[in-house]
Automatic annotation (TrEMBL):
InterPro entries to which the protein is assigned, alphabetical: AhpC/TSA (IPR000866), PRX-like1 (IPR047262), Thioredoxin-like_sf (IPR036249), Thioredoxin_domain (IPR013766)
Protein name, as recorded: Thioredoxin family protein
Keyword terms, alphabetized: Signal
Record bears the keyword Signal: yes
Length: 203
């Protein structure tokens, strides 16, 4: 009985922490960060001085949805980095809660999959909380403006998490196409699809 109560308390704690996280929305300022990349160098928005904006993706090693979107994230970077919109991937999971998301495991995956983009470790989940990322993957498309970095879109990469649709709505691509044409995106928010961010249990 005590074990059941403890499990319920842990589940409630995880749910409550997720519920308390406020997700950024279109028009909000995108907080800058400086996080360690898998090559042991620190990366921030300033690491891309020629960028017009950024595709910030909170993703991980382990979630089946993150795995399913892995190649699509690589494709986004390959397509839009040359056009000024590089991918910046951030792992939001606490490695104590998900041992397969340690920094070393991240390095292994990035090397195995030949990630063309930085894959950053968010120690303490500070940046995860600043953006309000709740799932993996959870995407934030950011514009670089005269007033600073501004969120333009938040949500899912597309409407096909299973990868089975012959015709899909490519939210991320459509948003960046609009931004490149100096237009506001028609869609600025969709429901994020993926596993919840893994947090260690509070003592």
């Amino acid at each position: 009985m005590k074990k059941i109560i403890l499990l319920l308390m842990l589940a409630f704690s995880a749910f409550f922490s997720q519920a308390q996280t406020v997700t950024l929305k279109a028009g909000d300022a995108a907080p800058d960060f400086k996080l360690k990349n898998v090559d042991n160098k620190e990366v921030s928005f300033a690491s891309f001085p020629k960028a017009k904006g950024f595709i910030v993706v909170f993703t991980c090693n382990t979630c089946p949805y993150a795995v399913a979107y892995e190649q699509r994230i690589i494709d986004l970077d390959n397509k839009f980095r040359p056009q000024g919109y590089p991918v910046i991937a951030i792992n939001p999971n606490d490695p104590e809660a998900q041992p397969e998301d340690t920094f070393v495991k991240m390095q292994d995956l990035a090397k195995q999959k030949k990630y063309p983009f930085p894959y950053l470790f968010d120690a303490g989940q500070k940046v995860t909380d600043q953006f309000g990322a709740k799932r993996t993957p959870h995407i934030f498309i950011v514009s670089k403006t005269a007033k600073g970095n501004v969120v333009e879109y938040v949500g899912a990469i597309d409407n096909d998490p299973e990868g089975t649709k012959t015709e899909k709505i490519k939210y991320a691509e459509d948003v960046i196409t609009s931004l490149k044409n100096n237009q506001k995106p028609a869609i600025t928010q969709t429901k994020e699809i993926g596993c919840t961010v893994k947090r260690k249990a509070k003592a």
